Amino acid sequence: MDSVEPLSSSWKIFGDFLILVFLLFLSGLFSGSETALTSIGRLKLKKMLEKSDNQNRKQVIHDALHRPNWLLTTILVCNNLVNILASSIATVIALDLLPKKAESTAVAIVTGIMTFTILIFGEITPKIYAKENTEKIFRKTIHLINFLSFILGPVIFILMKISNFFIKMFGGEKLAEAPFITEDEIIFAVEVGEKEGILKKEESEFVSRILEMKDTDVREIMVPRVDMVCVEDEDNLLELIKLIKEEGFSRIPVYHETIDNIIGICYAKDVLSILAEENSLKNIEKIRTRELMHQPYFVPETKKISNLLSEFRKMKIHMAIVVDEFGGTLGLITMEDILEYIVGEIMDEFDHDEKLGIKQIKENVYIIDAKIPIADLERELNVEFPETEFETIGGYLLEIFERVPNVGEEIDVNGFHFKILAASKSRIDKIQMEISPNLYQENMRIESEE
User: Fold this and answer.
1) Integer-rounded Cα radius of gyration of the chain
2) What domains does the chain contain, in order, with CATH numbers?
3) Measuring CA to CA, how many Å separate 334 from each of 206, 316, 322, 341?
4) Sign of the C-alpha dihedral, residues 348, 352, 354, 355?
5) Is 445 exposed, middle or buried (0-12, 13-18, 19+ CB in 10 A)?
6) Tell me: the pLDDT tens digits for 173-219?
């Protein structure tokens, strides 16, 4: 009998050890499935749902897509249960192997060993593996997790209610259904793609500008009132032709008495149609611009350019007059202005040769049109200006001087040396800008670090 008892005790210990190994396997399985579920991403799940032909698999993926918190709670409950059971079994094994007088020692040893074992085999290793093989682990474990969530449904329901109660108590909110991919995720992906060489800088800027359209007001990219080229309604066709020839625009706003009273838009193609008619040259000075004009389209300065672009396409027009809250004319915006915001400056046969109105006269020294947006300057010259409320370099200098500077005035600001080359009583027209070589070196250093 004495020999039978040690034998049965050995089999018991061996059985407990097998159970312990199985529980550690389950711990790793649940940890890996947790990482897979939280890493796979809603967009990937959406694609898997669309490609799947199996109805059962579709339902499982649907649950992961629309009830991720439910499945995550299931995983956490199961993982904690198996870890607790594993620690208990390990304690039993230690008590069976060590003398009864060494119970406290057994508990201490088991605590140390199990902490290390669970960390390595139940947490770190499976989670790193699942992070590198997200879709593979997700496919292999999601059916089991979905089944367990059904079995443990009442328990999960109660735990989630308790959890939501404490979340709300601490000022949190229950998350509504999120989009499959957020704008921040797209921007982050584009930035990573550019840094890794997958996307060119121009392509990255293109995507970013498109995403920014819904947050960009018309006033930020419009042609300001002072730069508008307009014609009076009493002017004749000959004067209109001269203006079109001089300025190179195909659409000219028409005003009555004052530019605040825009009453129409003249198209160059209509002028050509009239000139093609017989005897039109005889009456060219008798035809008034008001006889040719089309109905103008007015938009508020706060309108988003994404909405305006949609309206342009729907209404089949290319120009809108921007007005303030009192109906006064602030400027105009065209389809080309919006497209240039997205893809950059579009040069045609009427534009100047100097890119964007930037002319380099020697190393690090440029002659610049004051109307150029600061964002375009930063992009073209690879520099960065301090934060400002103004959109153009001319507006930025008005902020620095706190007045309209005189021609010839100079100022140094943050590594830039500015000289006013042309200005009127109300605005700056042209400037000379010299960039400090140290500023270029600093920008290159920052880019290399990124």
Assistant:
1) 36
2) 4-169 (no CATH), 183-214 (no CATH), 220-343 (3.10.580.10), 355-449 (3.30.465.10)
3) 19, 12, 10, 11
4) negative
5) exposed
6) 655 545 556 777 778 888 888 888 888 877 888 888 888 888 889 99
Q: How many residues does the chain have?
A: 450
Task: Determine the distance from the C-alpha atom of residue 48 to the mean position of all C-alpha atoms in its chain, rounded to a whole number.
Answer: 24
* Contact call for residues 222 and 332 (beta carbons, < 8 A): yes
Helix (H, G, I), strand (E, B) or coil at 160: helix
Instruction: Report residue 298 CA to chain centroid gap.
Output: 30
Q: What is the pLDDT of residues 387-409, one digit of tens each?
A: 888 888 898 999 899 899 999 99
Q: CA–CA separation, 359 vs 33, rounded Å?
A: 59
Angle at 235 between CA 231 and CA 237, to 5 degrees: 95
Alpha carbon distance 119, 27 (integer Å):
10
Q: Are 378 and 384 in contact (CB under 8 A)?
A: yes
Which of 7-16, 347-356, 417-426 is the least confident region? 347-356
pLDDT tens readout for residues 24-63: 999 999 999 988 888 887 777 777 877 777 777 777 787 7
Contacts of 350 (CB under 8 A, 6+ apart): 247, 248, 249
**pTM exceeds 0.90:** no
Residue 120 DSSP label: I
* Number of alpha carbons in the 13 Å side-chain half-sphere of residue 147: 7
Distance CA 337, CA 225 (A): 15
Cα–Cα distance measured from residue 36 to residue 133, given in angstroms and rounded to the nearest whole number:
8
Residue 437 contacts residue 448 (beta carbons within 8 Å)? no
Strand bridging mode 258-267 / 251-256: antiparallel
Task: Name the token pair of 37.
Answer: 């579920």
96 versus 352: which is more confidently predicted?
A: 96
pLDDT band, residue 4 (cuts 50/70/90) = very low
